[in-house]
Every structure is written in C-alpha cells, then in structure tokens.
Amino acid sequence: MVTLTAKLTVKAGKEQEFEDTMKKVVPEVRKEPGNRAYSMCRSKKDPRVFMFYEEYVDDDAFAAHRKHLGELGVNLAAALDGTPELEFYDKIAS
Questions:
Q1: Where are the domains of the chain?
Q2: What is the pLDDT of residue 94?
Q3: Given CA atoms 64, 25, 15, 47 in this order, what sign does their dihedral have?
Q4: Which positions ≥6 away from 66 have C-beta within 8 Å?
Q5: Are 3 and 65 in contact (CB under 8 A)?
Q6: Is the distance from CB of 28 to CB of 1 less than 8 angstroms?
Q7: Which of 18, 43, 65, 86 is the most buried (most CB within 10 A)?
Q8: CA 32 – CA 46 distance, rounded (Å)
Q9: What phi and psi, each to the nearest 5 degrees, are found at residue 77?
Q10: Which helix (H) or strand (E) holds 19?
Q11: What is the tens place of the pLDDT at every residue in 53-73?
C-alpha cells in the first residue's frame, strides 16, 4: 500500500481555476484500478494551499496515477507555485 499526502501551493490568482479543475479530476482518479482513496482539501489559513490524501495498492498504481493526471489534462507545473510536498506514510490501522 502506498499512502501519502501531497501539499500543493497554487499560484496567486489561480486558486479557483485549480479547485474547479481538480473537482472534476477527483472522481476520475477514484476510478483508477489501483486507487483506494483520493481526497482534496483546502487550507483554511491559506487559500492557495491544497492538500490531497491518497492511497494506492502499490507503487505501480501510484505511477499509473501520475500518468493518468497528465492524460486528464492536469498540468501541475503551470498551476503551482513551487514543487509539491509529498509525504509518504506507513498505514497502521484503518
């Protein structure tokens, strides 16, 4: 199991566009064969910061997800202010 959070800071003025795009993308990611969880959250403190909680059955499923985002037309490099902060976890209980 691959469990992670991805913290993304969006460029100023791109917040609503990013949110609208990702609201359409989230249900598509949940349909990926190896996806077990994919949730999008927005910081209450800083509206430019989004956090994704993600679970995949294995590394191959996570790699397929990254490719799938591109196929869905998500261009993170164009939307983000800096690089995503990924943090991986060992799932202990669910």
A1: 2-89
A2: 82
A3: negative
A4: none
A5: no
A6: no
A7: 18
A8: 30
A9: -60, -35
A10: helix 15-30
A11: 999 999 999 999 989 998 998
Residue among 43, 16, 40 at smallest CA distance from 28: 40
Which residue's entry shows tokens 């996570």? Answer: 62
Please list, in sequence order, all residues whose beta carbon lies within 8 angstroms of the beta carbon of residue 27, skipping any fewer than 6 positions away.
none
Cβ(35)–Cβ(69) below 8 Å: no
Report the C-alpha gap between 87 and 45 in whole angstroms. 20
Topology classification of domain 2-89: Alpha-Beta Plaits (3.30.70)
Bridge partners, residue 31, by sequence: none
Structure tokens at 24: 């359409």
Q: Is 44 left (phi over 0), alpha (psi -120 to 50) or beta?
A: alpha
